[in-house]
Amino acid sequence: MFSLLITLWLRILFHSVVEDDSPSTGGGGRRRNVLYAVRGGMSPGLYDSWPEAVDAGWHDRAPYGNAVTFPTDQREKAEQWIVSRPRANGNMGRFQERVRQQHIFVRILFVLLLGTLMCVAIWKVSVYAHNMFECDSTFNASNPICVGTGKLKYTVQSNMAHLQSLVMVEVTALVVFLFTYLASFL
After folding, report:
1. Which of 100, 64, 99, 71 is nearest to 85 (CA)?
2. Could you give phi then psi for residue 103, rounded to 5 degrees?
3. Is 45 left (phi over 0), alpha (psi -120 to 50) or beta?
4. Separation CA 111–CA 118 (nearest Å)
5. What are residue 56's phi and psi, to 5 degrees?
6. CA-based end-to-end distance of the chain
7. What H or E segment, with its residue span, contains residue 123?
8. Cα separation of 29 and 22, whole Å?
9. Of 4, 34, 166, 177, whose CB count within 10 A is highest?
10. Nearest-5° angle of CA 118, CA 152, CA 147?
11. Please, which residues have CB within 8 angstroms of residue 128's CB and are 6 or more apart in sequence?
């Protein structure tokens, strides 16, 4: 963490010295006879400098063949290339494009749903451990498993109505987003 902060500080401090750290120049050099073409994504286009291309999503697009360099004398060819195939071929390219276009609420919903499912799984495992050690029939206060699972079981059971409401809201929202997503294919 500390080395990352030092590296960032040095980059900011010596930004005027290091003009271009693109892979085509080997880092640290300056290259003016190259156009950086980025297609698809949030900001497709031709860029004259490496930092602009990186801000446009060069690193996200390059692994799928959607970011390349062209000599400056081939500007027309680069513009045709950007228009010719706006996203990667195949189903995986289309899926990744749709995932990038998803609304932030969809991503938050998936994280919340996964968190809720993990909590339910942990609760089920603790109830299984509680029953396996027969903590209900012979409560043993010195057994940490019985004490911990008993507390968790009591907490979940006392808040069961709230948890059921939360799960129902998440499932309803997930179904709505799923239908919206499937309707985009029509």
Report:
1. 64
2. -70, 150
3. left
4. 10
5. -80, -5
6. 47
7. helix 104-132
8. 8
9. 34
10. 135
11. none
Please write the tens of the pLDDT for every residue from 103-147: 677 778 788 888 888 888 888 888 888 888 778 776 667 788 888
Tell me: the pLDDT tens digits for 11-54? Answer: 655 543 334 444 444 444 455 689 999 887 778 889 998 889 88
Calculate Rg over the CA atoms of the chain: 27
| Whole-number Cα distances in Å, 169 to 73, 115, 121 | 57, 14, 19
Q: Name beta bridge partners: 68.
A: 37
Do residues 47 and 62 make contact, with C-beta atoms less than 8 angstroms apart? no
Question: What does residue 27 show for φ and ψ, rounded to 5 degrees?
Answer: 85, 135
Helix (H) / strand (E) containing 46: strand 45-47
CA distance 75 to 81: 10
pLDDT attached to residue 11: 61
- Report how many helices (DSSP H) and strands (DSSP E) the chain contains, helices first: 8, 3
Where does the pLDDT of residue 4 fall: very low under 50, low under 70, confident under 90, or very high at 90 and above?
Answer: low
Question: How many CB atoms are closer than 10 A to CB 138?
Answer: 9
Give residues with Cβ within 8 angstroms of 136, minimum separation 6. 130
